[in-house]
Amino acid sequence: MAKIPTDVRTAVIEEVVRRLDAARWEEASPSAASEMYDRFVKDPKIGGRLSPYMPAEKIRVWIKDGPAKEYRRALEGIGPIASFTKRAYPGPESVVRLALGDQWLPKPDTIEEKPMRCFAEGPDGQSMFVIWGPLSALQGLIWNSCLVRAEDSLKPITVVVTKPNSARLPANDWKLVEALCGIVGADCEQVTYAVTRKPGM
Fold first, then answer.
1. Beta strands 157-163 and 187-192: pairing type?
2. Within 10 Å of residue 105's Cβ, how many Cβ atoms?
3. With 97 labelled, which of 4, 45, 70, 126 sits at a CA distance of 20 to 30 A?
C-alpha cells in the first residue's frame, strides 16, 4: 500500500471530520455508522482522494480505524484530530461539577483517556476517582474502577454515565449500572454531557 501524501491525508481527515461534525457522530447508531462508511468510500472528496493509494476495502478500514475512531477523543480535546473538529464536550471540569458538586475540581495531571477518567479534589481536600462515558462504554468504566479498587480498597469512586440530553436512562439500564457499581463499591451518577460548537466556530 502506497504512503498517503501528507496534504492528501490532511485534506481527507478534514473532510471526514466535517461530515462527522454534521452527523453528530457520537450519537450515531452502528447501522448509521456503517452506512456513512460506505458513503465515505464512494465520495470523491474522501474515497476518491484515497483511491490512488489503497483499494476500496482498505479505505473503509482506514476511515473506521482512523478519524472515526479518534473522533470521540477529539471531542474531549485529545488526540491528533482534535483541532479539526468544530465541536467539543464541555470537559472534565463539567463532568466533575455535575456529578459531585460545584466545589469539586479535577486534578489536571491525573486526567486520562480510554475511557475518560481523573482524580477529583473536594473542598476539604477529599479525593475521588471519577470515570465517565456513555452507557455503551459501561464495561470499560467498571473494569477501570475495578483496577482502582484493587489498588486501594477505600478509595471513593464515582462512575458517571453521560448522555446527550436531560432524559433519564431507561430504568433497566440504570438498575444494571447501580448493580455493577455496587459490586465495585462505587457511587454512580448520570449527567447530561452534550457536545456544542466551539467558541468562534
1. parallel
2. 16
3. 70
